[in-house]
Amino acid sequence: MNEEERRQYFYLAGKNPEYDRIAKKLLANRTILAWILKYCVEEFKESEISDIRDKYIQGTPEVASTPVLPDATNVGKADYIQGDANEDVTATEGQVTFDIRFRAITPADEALELIINVEAQKNANPGYPLLKRAMYYCSRLISSQHGVDFDKSHYEKIKKVYSIWLCMDTSDEQSGITRYQMQEKVEYGTFREKRAYYDLQQIVMVYVGNSKRDAGNRLLSLLCELFKSSDSAVIKLHTLKDEYDINLTQSEEGMVDTMCNLSVGVFERGWNSAWDSAWNKSAEMKDREIVINLLKKQMDMQFIIDVVNCSASFVRQVAKEENLSVKE
Fold first, then answer.
1. 89, burial (CB in 10 Å: exposed 0-12, middle 13-18, buried 19+)
2. Hey, CA dihedral for 191, 192, 198, 203, is it positive or negative?
3. Which one of 128, 162, 201, 239 is CB 3.0 to 4.6 Å from 138, fit for a cystine?
4. Residue 73, phi-psi category: left (phi > 0), alpha (psi -120 to 50), beta (remainder)
5. Which class for 73: exposed (0-12), middle (13-18), buried (19 or more C-beta within 10 A)?
6. Are residues 26 and 269 in contact, defined by beta-carbon separation less than 8 angstroms?
7. Which residues pair with 181 in a beta bridge?
8. CA distance 14 to 208
9. Alpha carbon distances (Å) from 315 to 153, 214, 289
């Protein structure tokens, strides 16, 4: 696969809403989040991945009990983060949906609580300055603390926020990480404030190129392997376990496999004359194709419902018509 084909491969995969949905669920894995925090959040730069995952990321097993991963034999403890409600609604500002939002405790002697947002962005150039959108998200992360973390005029209780953007389709296919933060600049005199008083929001833009071996930055290599590499699911899973100590559950492994299949399927359709007609099928026909694919792979009922966002009766009807068994 040459460079242009690789770019088209990822572009078409990203156009599939089911691919997008599964990718975000995988990003909510605690170990994957720990890698993101180590390379994007200054407070965790010196921390071990295992400590970030097990000690500092805040989350409870109840979050994972709405089974994205219903296979009880392999789930063990909950391995998903779903901290605050992922939608903020105000009468005047409308609705903003965050991909992932959670809280973490810093490893410092005087531990602080951070509010962290991770966004999976398919296109780094969506037609407007993405950085401005990130700034808006940071502002909402701070303003939404009113009535939750502080009330009235107790602004001293405002918690620091991070908005981390994983840009999967950069214009020049190069990798990089860029940080934006508020800084103090003394124009006259010597008066200075504590950094903790003004360093309340940081934006980190992570640009994921096509190289799986970005020297000196394992996070970029990890994200490339997971979301941009054309490797098979078997190779991806082997790499995640051996190089990044990411042990996925059976259902998570199924997500990786499904994501790879969706990518390949879309890519193949994109390179023949049937692409337009296939993409213009009704939503129900698209859902039906995905359900059939998952049934053939013997994915269980709840997993299919979560991935396709359909009803159990729809899955059973498709299974009956295709003479396929349903794993309840």
1. exposed
2. positive
3. 201
4. alpha
5. exposed
6. no
7. 202
8. 14
9. 52, 42, 11
Task: Kindly list the averaged pLDDT for each block of 10 residues, start to end, along the chain of length 328.
Answer: 47 57 84 95 95 86 27 41 53 60 87 90 82 92 89 92 89 83 93 92 91 74 85 87 89 81 48 43 73 84 83 90 88
Which of 59, 65, 52 lies closest to 81 in space, CA to CA? 59
29 vs 33: CA distance, rounded Å = 6
Predicted local distance difference test score (pLDDT) of residue 278: 45
Beta bridge partner(s), residue 206 = 166, 177
Amino acid at residue number 255: M
Alpha-carbon Rg for the chain, nearest whole angstrom, is 21
User: Is-contact 218 195, C-beta < 8 A?
Assistant: no
Residue type for 229, please? S
Is residue 177 within 8 Å of 40, Cβ to Cβ?
yes
Q: Is 200 exposed, middle or buried (0-12, 13-18, 19+ CB in 10 A)?
A: middle
Q: How far is CA 20 from the centre of its chain?
A: 9
Please state the separation of Cα 202 from the chain's center in Å. Answer: 18
50/48 Cα distance (integer angstroms): 5
